Amino acid sequence: MKPEPRWKPPFPVGYAAAIDSVGSIAAPLLASVSAALATLVVPNEEAFRWPNLTVFLLVGATLVLVAAVQFGFRARQYIAMPSDLEQWWPIEDAAGIDLRRQIQRYHATKHQAWATAAGHAYNAGLLCFLLGLALITIPPGNLGGYRLAVTALALLGALAEAAWIVYTRVTQDADVLLPEVGPEWTPSISPDTEGDG
N or C: which end of the chain has fewer CB within 10 A? Predict the structure, then answer.
C-alpha cells in the first residue's frame, strides 16, 4: 500500500502564483480599462453602432474582473506553506504532524475553491472586455476599409480567447505523466485540481 503523502502540494506547482497575479495585477488593470471605456461610450452614443450592448459588456467586464480580484484575495489567504506550518505548530510527535497535515489540506482545499472562482471570473471578464472592445470599433455607418480590418482583428482576439478558455477546460483533466521515483516523492494529483489560464 502506498503511504499517504505528508502534504497536498498545488498542481501545477505555479498555480497559486498565477492566481495571485490574476487577482493583484491583470484583473484590476483590465477592470479599470473596462470602466474607462464604458464611461467614454455613454456620452457619445451616436459614435457607436450598438452603444447599449457595448456599455453592457464593458460594465459586465468591470464587475466580473473586480470579482476576480476579490476571489484572488480570498484564495491568497489560504496559501499555507509547509515551512509556515512547521514554524507555527512545532510539535514533532505523530499528533503534531497529523495536525499540520490536516491544516494544510484544509487550506489547500479552500485555496483551490477560491482560486477556481477567480480563474472563472477572470476568464468571463476578459471575454466580456474583448467583445466590448470589438464593439467599440464598429461605427454606426458603413464598415469598410481599415475599420473593417480593425474590427475583424478585435473579433479575432475575442474568438481566440474563447477558444483558449474552451481548450483549457477540455484539457485540464488530462493525465499528467510523471516519472515514478518512489512514494515519498510522487505528488498526489487530485482530479479536482485545475489550472485556469
Answer: N
